[in-house]
From TrEMBL:
It holds the Pfam family Fn3-like. Keywords: Carbohydrate metabolism, Glycosidase, Hydrolase. The keyword Transmembrane does not apply. One of its GO terms (molecular function) is hydrolase activity. InterPro entries: Cellulose_deg_GH3 (IPR050288), Fn3-like (IPR026891), GH (IPR017853), Glyco_hydro_3_AS (IPR019800), Glyco_hydro_3_C (IPR002772), Glyco_hydro_3_C_sf (IPR036881), Glyco_hydro_3_N (IPR001764), Glyco_hydro_3_N_sf (IPR036962). Gene3D superfamilies: Glycoside hydrolase family 3 C-terminal domain (3.40.50.1700), Glycoside hydrolase, family 3, N-terminal domain (3.20.20.300), Immunoglobulins (2.60.40.10). Belongs to the glycosyl hydrolase 3 family. Residues 327-353 are annotated as: Disordered. This is Glycoside hydrolase family 3 C-terminal domain-containing protein. Residues 337-351 have a biased composition (Polar residues).
Length: 883
């Protein structure tokens, strides 16, 4: 039987889930149900009924490093290898659709889910995601990139409206998805919970039809985030294929009713059903069964892949000389005025530990590891490691031994002076040559469902590091104090100047400890580079003044000035720039040339050890290329060494307003390509980075199309956004002439977004933007948390009780109460999507009546609605079963 021959009700039934993780198939048409499962860095195949928050038990699977860590490898081929292993495990666990990767832009470092996202830059996010998708889908399993789109905060995540200008949305927040779709052809994509400019993502025709399908050519299935569907009819019209999890039969009745009434074309229903059927057909799993996953050879091989990913993703942030004091110049002090990369290790550098070194290991996380975040992506790892044991296991081959261990701090952040004193005493022992402190964010800090409240590490850990630093300064030998930093997002480092070395390992997966030990002892050379900027302090962040939005509207007031685009344009000092990473090797960049299709340059490893660097291509647009810099002939000769560094600084750092306005508004420089290069000791290689459709374009919102400005642009190459030793002018023959930027943009013209006025924001958005006040009457889209302002005692009590319960659980267990957080952030409309048909839209209206203070009226409507809904569900089930 052909799909078109099915009844309207049967086709409508295919467009919503049959359970928490399963689609609805159709036996008459030979369309099987398929299984969807988290997650982006490990398969979370749940037992029993399952849940979408990571609360229930799941089958063992390899826990790979999280996306925020993998991105620091800057290696799409490595991501593809990880994807191959992920897809194999999904296949073996009978999972047809793996829900990942996450590639939302890291707008602000406090987003609780940043560890699941790649970068603040869409080129990095898109290329890394494309690699993972290709690997996953090589196993006959569908990847599902998420959350599409403009999803940047966990607070009110199901009831938030992202208000953003079209150009910023297209260039910053959608380009990563575009790259993933065009380069990796994912079979599915997941929409986000939020509205975008007032329209929910899963029913946003501009997003799903105009852009995703018509412009990018996506012909796959669009699935809602769990509970993220609003109107089934509007979704089908807009391009949304499948709503999850099971809403029962409410949506079936809504869709069939709309077709009967003529408000929904049956042709649209057919399109969406065909998209679901296509995924079912493309992911019919054959071959090995799920029991083979635990075979020793597969588990060991995938553990090795996880270790390799963790090794390439570790970022050496500091490596000072030992004996000269920790304040001595080190790699992080490089001026960026030569062609040599910012890596200046010496024979006396704190890392790597040399054979014979006796190390005091300090920190609870060294013994009880944290290697992933909390929430729906949490994996039941097949094994785990800890740094303390791995150092001991490696002693025979490295010659580095463990002199002792001290806990150092309370895991839950409680002040405990005795733990600090024990650690200081251990560090001061004569049989200790070096101190290794393992610190980081705890399990409560990074989770789906809530945003971080601060960029600071727990005070107890900062106290520990400060005490150890003070103790090492008093020792005659100048024992090096090395910090291993565990966190999925940037943190403030008040003790940065007082420690010898910092190795940032992120959330490094189940093999992260052995990878860390190999980096500390020099068995591998750290090659990670940061895929996001680390500000000095949170207040420096461009969106610090309005993040997270506590009301309905999350206004993206900063426009395109996200991450390094802001810090570079507004000239705000940072702790570590975008793209930054040190090495035990040193590299020289030279001989930059450009032709019509790309740039070529030479990279040399000047050291006696093999290593890898990440070469990065940045582009400064027409408005910056002429902005008060030297004449073109002067820049033309600047293709290496100090002259290039000075030229690119002159070209891009200007305050000449008239020159700045020579082209459209844009950041001072933007990443447009990168390549990771592995070089043997003293090896030289010619490297090429090609231009592509993303290199010179900008989105012309007024014309509704992509455009390229003609003129002299500047191309710069280096190993981070602040260290670009190579630069050259480049004549671009675009399709429009450069026109002056609108002077009404005011502070945007210099990136000073913290002082943007409402009038200037209106010029950017093309219309006035006004944030609504707090609601006095609640509707189906206001979250339960907003009921704290209800006039009704019952509604206020419900909201306040849930808030207190979540806080108490978090304090008591040291982990967030994900279920309560989900309820608090959930609008009533989601209840009809998350209860497998127990609640319908009429019952939701009754619940909202209770929220507005009419308790008894609402309860009456709820009871009556329940009885009507049960009867209707029975009738629909009978129709679908052809009884």
């Amino acid at each position: 039987m052909e799909l078109e021959e099915l009844s309207v009700a049967e086709k409508a039934a295919m467009l919503s889930g049959g359970s928490e993780w399963d689609s609805r198939g159709n036996e008459r048409a030979g369309i099987p149900s398929f299984v969807m499962s988290d997650g982006p860095h490990g398969v979370r195949r749940q037992l029993g009924a399952g849940d979408h928050l990571g609360l229930g038990a799941s089958k063992p699977a390899t826990c790979f490093p999280t996306a925020g860590t993998v991105a620091n490898s800057w290696n799409p081929e490595l991501a593809e290898r990880m994807g191959e292993a992920l897809g194999r495990e999904a296949h073996d666990l009978d999972v047809n659709v793996l829900l990942g990767p996450g590639l939302n832009i890291k707008r602000n470092p406090l987003c609780g889910r940043n560890f699941e996202y790649y970068s603040e830059d869409p080129i990095v996010a898109g290329r890394m995601a494309a690699g993972l998708i290709r690997g996953i889908q090589s196993n006959g399993v569908a990847a599902c990139p998420k959350h599409f789109a403009v999803n940047s905060q966990e607070l009110r995540r199901q009831a938030s409206n992202s208000v953003i200008d079209e150009r910023t949305m297209r260039e910053i927040y959608l380009t990563g998805f575009e790259i993933a779709v065009r380069e990796a052809a994912p079979l599915t994509i997941m929409t986000s919970y939020n509205e975008i400019n007032g329209v929910y993502a899963h029913e946003n025709k501009h997003l799903l039809q105009d852009i995703l399908r018509d412009e990018w050519g996506f012909d796959g299935m669009v699935v809602s985030d769990w509970g993220g569907s609003n109107s089934a009819v509007a979704a089908v019209k807009a391009g949304g294929s499948l709503e999850m999890p099971s809403p029962g039969f409410t949506s079936v009745r809504e869709l069939t009713g709309a077709v009967a009434a003529g408000t929904l074309a049956e042709a649209d229903l057919n399109k969406r059903a065909a998209e679901v059927a296509k995924v079912a057909a493309a992911t019919r799993l054959t071959g090995v069964g799920r029991d083979d996953l635990l075979a020793d050879d597969i588990a060991a091989a995938h553990h090795a892949v996880a270790r390799r990913v963790a090794e390439e993703s570790a970022v050496l942030l500091k490596n000072a000389a030992v004996g000269a004091g920790v304040d001595a110049p080190d790699a992080s002090d490089a001026s960026g005025t030569s062609g040599t990369s910012e890596t200046k290790p010496s024979a006396t550098s704190a890392l790597p530990f040399t054979p014979g070194t006796r190390v005091a290991v300090i920190g609870d996380m060294a013994k009880t590891p944290r290697f992933q975040g909390s929430g729906s992506s949490k994996v039941n790892a097949t094994r785990d490691e800890n740094i303390l044991d791995e150092l001991a296991h490696a002693a025979d081959r490295t010659g580095v031994t463990v002199a002792g261990y001290a806990q150092g701090y309370d895991r839950q952040g409680k002040a405990d002076r005795a733990l600090v004193e024990d650690a200081v005493a251990l560090a001061g022992r004569d049989d200790v040559d070096a101190i290794l402190a393992v610190v980081g964010l705890d399990e409560r800090s990074e989770s789906e469902g809530l945003d971080r409240s601060t960029m600071a590490l727990p005070a107890a850990q900062n106290e520990l590091v400060a005490a150890l630093a003070a103790a090492t300064r008093t020792t005659a030998a100048g024992k090096p104090l090395v910090v291993v930093l565990v966190a999925g997002s940037p943190v403030e480092l008040p003790w940065f100047d007082d420690v010898s070395a910092i190795l940032y390992v992120g959330l490094s997966g189940q093999a992260g400890a052995s990878a860390t030990v190999r980096a500390l002892t020099g068995e591998i050379n750290p090659s990670g580079h940061l895929a996001e900027t680390w500000p000095m302090r949170y207040d420096d962040c461009p969106s610090a003044g309005w993040y997270p939005a506590i009301g309905r509207d999350a206004i993206y007031r900063e426009g395109p000035f996200v991450g390094y685009r802001y810090y570079e344009t507004a000239q705000v000092p940072v702790r570590f720039p975008f793209g930054y990473g040190l090495s035990y090797a040193t590299f020289t960049y030279s001989d930059l040339t450009a032709d019509e299709t790309g740039v070529e340059f030479t990279v040399t490893n000047d050291s006696d050890v093999a290593g890898a660097t990440v070469a990065q291509l940045y582009v400064s647009g027409r408005s910056r290329a002429v902005a008060g810099g030297p004449a073109a002939s002067t820049v033309a000769g600047a293709t290496g060494e100090a002259e290039a560094g000075a030229a690119v600084a002159d070209v891009t750092a200007t305050t000449d307003t008239n020159a700045t306005n020579a082209g459209v508004l844009r950041p001072v420089r933007e990443l447009k390509g990168f390549v990771k290069i592995e070089l043997a000791a003293h090896e030289t290689r010619t490297v090429r980075i090609d231009f592509d459709r993303y290199t010179f374009r900008h989105f012309d919102a007024e014309a509704g199309r992509w455009a390229t400005e003609s003129g002299i642009w500047t191309l710069a190459v280096g190993d981070n956004v602040e260290h670009l030793p190579l630069a050259t002018p480049f004549a671009v023959a675009g399709d429009i002439d450069a026109a002056p930027a609108d002077p009404a943009l005011g502070h945007y013209l210099t990136g000073d977004v913290k002082h943007v006025t409402d009038a200037e924001m209106a010029a950017l958005f093309g219309h006035e933007v006004v944030a609504p006040g707090r609601p006095t009457v609640f509707d189906v889209n206001d979250p339960i948390s907003s009921w704290v302002d209800s006039r009704g005692f019952v509604a206020r009590t419900v909201a306040n009780t849930l808030i207190r319960r979540e806080a108490n659980v978090r304090e008591k267990t040291g982990a967030p109460d994900l279920n309560t957080l989900f309820i608090l952030n959930m609008p009533p409309r989601a209840m009809s999507k998350m209860t497998q048909g127990m609640v319908d839209s009429a019952m939701v209206d009754a619940i909202v009546t209770i929220g507005n203070g009419h308790t008894f009226r609402g309860l009456g409507g709820l009871i009556a609605g329940f009885l009507r809904n049960q009867s209707a569900n029975k009738r629909t089930a009978k129709e679908l079963n052809h009884d």
